[in-house]
Amino acid sequence: MSYNIALQFEDGVTRIIPCEANELVADAAYRAKINIPLDCRDGACGTCKCHCESGTFTMGDYIEDALADDEAAQGYVLTCQMKPTSDCVVRIPASSAACKTEVSTYAGRMARIARDSSTTVSFTLQAERPIAFLPGQYVNLLVPGSKETRSFSFSSAPNRTELAFLIRDVPNGMMSTYMRSKAQTDDFMMFSGPYGSFYLRPAVRPILMLAGGTGLAPFLSMLLWLKDNPTEQPILLGYGVNSNEDLVELGTLAELKSALPNFNFFTCVVDRESGHAKLGYVTEHLSPGDLRDGNVDVYVCGPPPMVEGVRKWMAGVGVTPKNFLFEKFSSANETAAVAA
Question: What are the 2Fe-2S ferredoxin-type domain coordinates in residue numbering (predicted)?
């Protein structure tokens, strides 16, 4: 049996490699031409010490000078002695360049493009092979006809050939202009990645997701992954936008709510003239109880003012979540759509 091992490097690059059940992670990395820092290969020097953020594994023999008991209890491993028993995410304390690996480059063709919203474009690329990434991560897409790239999160589940994206239509933006007026089905696009430390951690406690505008994209990826990998933990998504026309993918969210019995979501709109049932910012529609006395993982994706607004709200209610993970994005006209 083979497992997927996501190697997270210090520079944000992620490489996902296969590792057999009885294979050492260090050997699997070497087979993939990735040189994790390594000296002794006997569990004696500690050079290959990394942190296993999620997943299960067994460890071979090693000495305490290489890996102390308290480090092992915190999830640190020696990759020269580590054999996976599930998919794992392993943080490597070195850059991808130092490990002599590069980010992966892929190609795909435009399979679908939707311009139903005046502020948002959604599209799907058909890749040549399934693309492995952690739900919530992003890639850099090359703008056709240029040498410029733009970063966009996947809004689809990992390990598929169909890759979905949800992007803000920025006036005069290079990618936005292409997507709004030039893109057609069967167009060829190049992209590289995956990147990013904003991805779904193991669902071991309640989850609170807060999305601003097209910050919804990585949460769709996470929720679609959870649909195939169910959890009993409750999940609440708050999705805030500036105006009614910014609300997208509501049908997808409704389908996910039907498929995930522990999932619920609400939407809110800043525009006081919108007539929406919930007006204002996302934090105005949360209660201290949503932080569950700190026993919660909070994920936030949106413009920088939104992230700071959520921080301010949590400080105001005096509750610190177990984990607070965020992804900030900005563009020429992106406003603080959901910040308090």
Answer: 3-96
Domain count within the chain: 3
d(CA 137, CA 131): 12
- Which of 208, 274, 198, 279 minimizes the C-alpha distance to 238? 208
Report the C-alpha gap between 77 and 67 in whole angstroms: 7
Model confidence, pTM: 0.88
For helices 216-228 and 250-259, the axis angle rounded to 10 degrees is 30
On the question of a cis peptide bond just before residue 194, with omega within 30 degrees of 0, the verdict is yes
200 assigned to some structural domain: no
User: DSSP states of 186-239 as a string?
Assistant: T-EEEEEEEE-S--PPP--S-EEEEEEGGGHHHHHHHHHHHHHS--SS-EEEEE
* 163 & 68 share domain: no
- 82 and 108 share a domain? no
Residues 6+ apart with CB under 8 A from 250: 267
Segment 129-178, tens digit of pLDDT: 999 999 999 999 999 999 999 999 999 999 999 999 999 888 888 998 99
Q: Is residue 179 within 8 Å of 166, Cβ to Cβ?
A: no
Edge to edge, what strands does the sheet with 263-269 contain? 263-269, 235-241, 207-212, 297-302, 323-328
Specify if 276 maps to a domain.
Answer: yes
Amino acid occupying residue 215: G
Amino acid letter, 80: C
83 shares a domain with 33: yes
Name beta bridge partners: 299. 209, 325
